Automatic annotation (TrEMBL):
InterPro entries: Surf1/Shy1. Its main location: membrane. The lineage of its organism: Bacteria, Bacillati, Actinomycetota, Actinomycetes, Mycobacteriales. Keywords: Cell membrane, Membrane, Transmembrane, Transmembrane helix. It is found in: Cell membrane. Pfam families: SURF1. This is SURF1-like protein. It is a multi-pass membrane protein. Belongs to the SURF1 family. The chain crosses the membrane at residues 46-66. It comes from Corynebacterium canis. One of its GO terms (cellular component) is plasma membrane. Coiled coil: none annotated.
Length: 209
């Protein structure tokens, strides 16, 4: 008898194996596609983040140089009589008398700034930053009698620490209204930073660079 010829083709086991390989291949393809998309998403987010950082840095640089240019323009103006509501760093002149017995020390790093009330002939009392002593708390008093001084308008620095009960009293910033309250006096809102070479100046406070 003729032996029955085995049909050619895949047996059930072979078909199952082929199907498994196909499915695994599809899974690997899908997994690889997901990984590629994830990497692309991360790269896109990283690129956006870097662009934001660069833009912020450029904006900060532009603002810095603009402010510096504006400040320099104010510094170059001629002095005017003292008044409130002037631009910061405007040079002003004022005539009056110092009150050296009412000095206040402003602690800085290192050393101190000496702030002395100045009663103008027009009436208002203006705090004047006379600069930094070279020997800590040892410094020359402000001159007595009437003088005319030139200085720069500076804004008050709110939020000072409590005034230390010593003589001269001491705190950490020129908070004009805080000092007025602590010392039971009335001061103008802005204060003056005394210019180099003026009556009563010590080592002048730094100017904007």
């Amino acid at each position: 008898m003729r032996r029955r010829e085995r049909k050619q083709g895949n047996t059930p086991a072979t078909a199952t194996t082929a199907w498994t390989i196909t499915v695994n291949s599809q899974k690997r393809t899908k997994s690889g596609s997901n990984t590629s998309r994830a990497i692309h998403t991360v790269e896109k987010k990283l690129g956006t983040f870097l662009l934001v950082i660069i833009a912020a840095a450029l904006l900060g640089t532009i603002v810095f140089f603009y402010d510096r240019q504006q400040t320099q323009a104010v510094l170059n103006r001629a002095p005017v009589p003292y008044a409130q509501d002037l631009d910061e760093w405007q040079r002003v002149t004022v005539t009056g008398t110092y009150s050296p017995l009412d000095d206040v020390l402003i602690a800085t790093r290192p050393g101190y700034h000496v702030v002395t009330p100045f009663r103008s002939d027009a009436g208002p009392v203006i705090l004047v930053n006379r600069g930094t002593p070279q020997n800590g708390r040892d410094y020359a008093p402000a001159p007595s009698g009437k003088v005319t001084i030139t200085g720069y308008i500076r804004r008050t620095q709110p939020g000072m620490s409590a005034v230390a009960e010593k003589y001269p009293p001491e705190t950490d910033r020129i908070d004009t209204q805080g000092l007025a309250l602590a010392l039971n006096q009335t001061f103008e809102l802005d204060y003056l930073q005394l210019a180099e070479g003026q009556p009563g100046v010590l080592d002048p406070a730094p100017m904007p660079g």
